[in-house]
Amino acid sequence: MHESRPLRRCLPAVLGLALLLLVGAVPLSSQADAAPGRHSVTGQVYTGYQGWFNAPGDGSPRNSWRHWANNSAPSPGNQSFELYPDMSAYPASARFQTGYAPLGNGQPATLFSSYPTAVVDQHFSWMQSYGIDGAALQRFGVDLLDPVSKQNRDTITDRVRDAAEAHDRGLYVEYDISGLTDANVEQTLKNDWTNTVTGTLDLTSSPSYAHEDGRPVVGIFGFGYTSRPGTAETALRVIRWFQDQGAYVIGAVPHGWRTGGGDTRPGFAPVYQALDMLSPWLVGNVGDLLPRLRADRADLDSRGQAYQPVIYPGFAWSNWNGGTRNQIPRNSGAYLWGQAVAVREAGIPQAFIAMFDEYDEATAIAPAASDSSMAPTNQYFLTLSADGTYVSPDFYLRLSAEASRMITGDKPLVRTVPIPLSTGPDLLRTGAELQQDVQPTWTDSVGPGGSGNVTGASGSGAPTMGTVTGADRKSGQSALRLQGSTPAPAHSYAYFRAFDVDIPVTSATRLSYDFLPKNENGRSISVDFVTTDGTTLRDSSATTTTGIDMHPGAAKGTVGSWTTVQSNFGPALAGKTIDTILIAYDRSGATGGFGAFIDNLAISTA
């Protein structure tokens, strides 16, 4: 069996309709402001922390690629991850060169290892600065059987403890029994808890280690699955043993634990009933979550058990397991937020976010590539803007923190995503790359400004505006194109709606795009804005950085050559909000065709 695959929590087979956002408001208690050294799991939202990436030269006992790819360098066609990480915050010593071409922005295509102290500290620093309560550190059964893998895992565990303490985040161990067998699962977990977790690592004495009712917390993933080891009798013995050691046991169990079906073994009801808290694995299950949560909670309440629902931002694994790209779309945060709303309405004041660093199956909330400019140019990777709206690399950290505080009751229930998709410096960026970048909201749609004295490029029909792939482009495979023809030497114009946005403008906001006019008339094609109060960029005082008016009628660029158009337009529109981005043509006294390509369109405050 492929080395890393037993470690995975695979997508359940049941895929349904989109998540319904059934919401309400219930005041809930919270321990979000627990004092240092008093971390718990009830009234808190934890995220799963894999810590399973390695690379040659990372100083680890493995000293080889792991999880990005296995043994050989990640390169086109040789990878086992779907979502490309944002590497910008990692020190140079923690960036390891891959076999990919450079990123779309020209930077080297590097990846991190989970082993260096600087990487672990960066992850927990993010948890602290964004407001993630803590991490459930995954401890994989298959690693415990191999001395090299165990040494690697133990060192990472030690560094996780130090980082959790430094940043006052909660921490508990969650065993993943994948890769173990019926014969060794019981003794492997007992030995590791006794000899390593509470022995050599002395992990549970850390002021960051989560305790519930004075008992150290331990999670176990896998009991009750048809695809995982352990009979019901074995599982029950293991749970009772941990409880006898004074531990509070969370069971990460199949989603069908209560009703049966799917990847759920029969006869495990006594196992589920013995747990202190249940955390059904819901990754891959879509549909109306609220009835499930309410039914689960009612069942658990009847026995005095606690509930830790699992929520996640989206899912895909086409680079590893084939299948559909962007299989369960994130919908620019709406998918995760809808689940958080359901948890809040069900009155459950804690949750588990899957996962912090799971780039493999694209469930990571840690910073990731926003668009094609942050991913290698010669291999597909999912990006955060793949759903059509620009999303900043840190958006899911910001959203997870906001969702956590709503779930715990520290903030009121809100039905829709309450935070901006980006806080800058990049507010919109698109190279128009299909499946990775923001695409036009409208194609061939005349908007504010209208059109007149224009036809299609062939002299009939209407002008066109949209994404073109495989034609002229500055980078990547795609660019935006506007083309048509002017039949008479009167005023000719065509203002096409391109992007529906909501971008506040400050004095520091600026515009940049690469521009290729195909003919002289094409030099009168430009990007234009309409703000919420009807003000336009073309009628403002804004100019390019070289002093050319931003009105499309002011010719720009050089026919047949790519140039970069930049405008520090902020002072001209400060205090307004851009509502629509237009691609427009406007010229008087000329006839014939007009056409131009626009690539790498960006609005930023940098």
Please describe what this structure looks like.
With 606 residues, this protein is an alpha/beta fold. The chain has two domains: 5-422, TIM Barrel (Alpha-Beta Barrel), CATH 3.20.20; 430-604, Galactose-binding domain-like (Jelly Rolls, Sandwich), CATH 2.60.120.260. Helices cover 20% and strands 21% of the residues. The chain contains eleven helices and 22 strands. It has helices at residues 117-130, 141-144, 147-166, 185-200, 232-244, 269-274, 289-301, 318-321, 334-345, 395-407, 570-573, and strands spanning 45-49, 96-97, 110-111, 134-140, 170-176, 211-212, 215-221, 248-252, 277-278, 306-307, 310-311, 351-353, 426-430, 446-452, 464-469, 478-486, 492-504, 510-517, 525-531, 563-567, 577-587, 592-604. Strands 1, 4, 5, 6, 7, 8, 9, 10, 11 and 12 form a ten-stranded mixed sheet that branches. Strands 13, 15, 16, 18, 20 and 22 form a six-stranded antiparallel sheet that branches. The two termini are 48 Å apart.
Rg from Cα? 27 Å
CATH class of the largest domain, please?
A: Alpha Beta
How many distinct domains? 2
Structural class: alpha/beta
Question: What is the CATH topology classification name of the largest domain?
Answer: TIM Barrel
Helix content: 10-25%
Mean pLDDT: 93
What's the architecture of the largest domain in CATH terms? Alpha-Beta Barrel
C-alpha geometry: elongated
Cα-to-Cα separation, first versus last residue: 48 Å
What is the CATH homologous superfamily assignment of the largest domain? Glycosidases
Q: Give unreliable regions as ranges.
A: 1-36
Main β sheet profile: 10 strands, mixed
Percentage of residues in DSSP E strands = 15-25%
Discrete helix count? 11
Strand element count = 22
